[in-house]
Amino acid sequence: MGSPRLVLLFSGKRKSGKDHVTNSLQLRLGSDICAILRLSAPLKEQFALERGLDYERLLGATEYKEGFRADMIRWGEEKRRADPGFFCRIIVRGVCQPVWIISDARRRSDVDWFRSEYGAVLQTVRVVASEETRRGRGWVYTPEVDGAESECGLDRGVDFDWIITNDGDSVSLEQQLSNLTGFIHSKLGA
Ligand SMILES: Nc1ncnc2c1ncn2[C@@H]1O[C@H](COP(=O)(O)OP(=O)(O)OP(=O)(O)O)[C@@H](O)[C@H]1O
Ligand SMILES: C[C@@](O)(CCOP(=O)(O)O)CC(=O)O
Question: Where's it mainly located (predicted)?
Fold first, then answer.
């Protein structure tokens, strides 16, 4: 396992398009260069095992996942209380690509952990979309979820290196992804 040349730590609210944007970026870079790591993957896997749920469906973007979100948040927070780096350490194990995309940072403890381990090569990226756009993608305001740390933990206090606006304008998104890809290539070439 090598150490990463670049770590891109993505965050954004529900249905802002974190998965869409990170998948598009990986398509541009190639999966041999770029790995997508999801903090929620080991969480969902273990949660699904314990509850007899469908892990693959928890990974998707459907109502199935939303039905379990509040419970998953509570379950994950218990784990993080005992060990804030618990999920971070699991997802970086054995990754050999030079560029790592973490698709779903949600808490200060996630940012702090990646800064302390990979600060020299870390870039923080915020994906934003208006509430109207997010509603069009199926977002329904749910107080116990949208008012909690899982959604609001990074609203303040992080000076993001990149902000990607994903409001449905595909030309604008392409341009923003080109800029980010250019930066990544410049770092890999250096
Ligand atoms: N630019 C876009 N063009 C077309 N569809 C998009 C775009 N951005 C997001 N979507 C769609 O909107 C839905 C939500 O996007 P996505 O799953 O990427 O959001 P997310 O931020 O990862 O959400 P969650 O936090 O709920 O997992 C998906 O069905 C996705 O395909
Ligand atoms: C339980 C949780 O990991 C669900 C994340 O799902 P997704 O990234 O929205 O697909 C959110 C959290 O950890 O607070």
Answer: cytoplasm
Q: Is residue 154 part of a domain?
A: yes
What pTM was estimated for this model as a whole? 0.97
Query: How many structural domains are present in the chain?
Result: 1
Q: ipTM greater than 0.95, yes or no?
A: yes
Confirm if 37 and 91 have CB atoms less than 8 A apart: yes
CATH number of domain containing 176: 3.40.50.300
Q: What is the CA(178)–ligand 2 centre distance, in A?
A: 27
pLDDT digits (tens, 9 = 90+) for 109-134: 999 999 999 999 999 999 999 999 99
Whether ligand 1 lies within 6 angstroms of the CB of 150 is answered as no
Using the mean position of ligand 2's atoms as its centre, give its distance from the Cα of residue 29 in Å. Answer: 25
> Does any domain span residue 1?
no
Strand-pair partners of 37 = 102
